[in-house]
Amino acid sequence: MDMDMDMDMDIDDAVPVPKQPDVQNSKPSIPTVYNNFKTWNTAIVAKLQKLDGVRDEDIKQWVVDNLRPIGCLDTYNYFHTQYLIAGLYRQTGKNSNWAKNLRRVSQELMELTIDKQDAQSLNEVIRYDESIAPNILRSLTEIINSRKATVGDITKLHTYFTTDAVGQKKLHLLRDYSVLEPILVGAFSRTRSREGMAVRLQLIALASAGGSKDAEANVKLTEDALKELEATTGKVLSATQFSQNVPEFLRAIELPVTALGYIFWLRENVLQPGDQFYDWKLYHQNKAPLMFDLLDEIAVRYPSHRSYIAEIWYSLLRRDFSIYTPVLAIEFKEYLLDRLLFLLKTGYVMPVLRVMAANAVHVDEKLMTHFVSNVLFEVETPFTRELILPVARMLEPLQPTAFKHCRTDKQAAVVQFLDAANSPLNDFRYNPEESNLLRSLVERFK
Question: What is the similarity comment for this entry (predicted)?
Fold first, then answer.
């Protein structure tokens, strides 16, 4: 983040001081933003200035910890937090990492509000504060709210962003994930319509590559790649047919947008009820299919795609494999846990650990033992408080004998973790409940 740029900005000018609300018609408890606006404003800016160092996969939790306590007290605080973020975004180079993080923060903050519909309406006022044709604004809003993009919306947006002088300068609106994702999902859905497909793919290519250096050539390259992937996915109706089109799928992951299209296509297919797309008995015969290996490759290449890949693994782990023998079911799920372990190695650590910790009591003991022993074997010391607590939650449901069949070095990794977590030399300041849990784990596993 360019700190000079941020510090030169007059904080009081970032957001206009709000008028005192009509007390008769407002809530009895006036929000903090009205009690001491300058202090509130300074606090928000100070927090946002630390955002540049936050990794993409940690932004959601960062918003929960840092902005929700003061930015979501009620509609007034929420509105002015979003207004401040929008002001900072406009004053920042829109392609900078900080600007991209600000947009993510705005979206995540909206997801945390109690009244989502009210928050969305406020977001539209803030996000589209410059002159945009009302019909375009309606289409963008409808796509965000419905999570679908109709042929009419696609046609309207394509015309606007390719022919309108104002629209050609606002391609960043299309790149907003809340807009782009429904458009992209619609291009690779199993039930997609051919009507308007060419225009849809052109719009996606424009959103992905438009405005870049050599934009015209890059848009054409991206459009051609999207067309090939759309044609390929249209004829691949099973994992068996996938193996007959491997070169096309390998080309698809060369671009971020086609890699994301591949994820959405595969997600819909493998999460169908039953084994219509992929017969898991084939896994036992041939081990992992290449279609899953490509997700590992995408995770390495594109950090912003990792959360979508993780959701596929979580969903498959929740799947009922009871039609197979218990041994096969465990084997399948160990493979899926190994995919999550691979995501950890790419740097997508805390989001996975939080999900696994939250679901620890629902995971088979053998599976959780497999997962947590590998986490502790792979992770580098020193351990942080942020890592210790979710791992402790994963250990909590396990029996004292859980690790007795693990390799000696993995058993040692568990002991090393517990020693470090309970060391008097650390200053993690656990609360009483956390301290009791960690002490009980030492007594159980050492």
Answer: Belongs to the NELF-D family.
- Those residues whose C-beta lies under 8 Å from the C-beta of residue 159, and which sit 6 or more positions away, are none
- Give the pLDDT confidence of 348-392 residue by residue, as tens digits: 999 999 999 999 999 999 999 999 999 999 988 788 999 999 999
Calpha distance 312→294 (Å, rounded): 13
Rounded CA-CA distance 263/295 in Å is 7
Q: Indicate the domain borders of the chain.
A: 3-127, 132-235, 237-346, 349-446
Q: 298 exposed, middle or buried (CB, 10 Å; 0-12, 13-18, 19+)?
A: buried
Distance CA 389, CA 374 (A): 17
The three-state secondary structure class of 396 is coil
**pLDDT for 28:** 30
What is the helix, strand, coil percentage profile of the chain, to 5?
70, 0, 30
The Cα 163–Cα 203 span in angstroms is 12
Q: Residue 54 is encoded by which pair of tokens?
A: 């936050």
95 CB burial (10 A radius; 0-12, 13-18, 19+): exposed
Rounded CA separation 40/38 (Å): 5
Structure tokens that stand for 249 in this block: 């799928």
In the chain, the amino acid numbered 47 is K
Q: What is the pLDDT of residues 135-168, one digit of tens each?
A: 787 788 788 778 899 999 999 999 999 988 877 8
pTM as predicted: 0.73
Task: Find, among 342, 340, 434, the residue nearest to 395 by Cα.
Answer: 434
The answer as to CATH 1.25.40 being correct for domain 349-446 is: yes
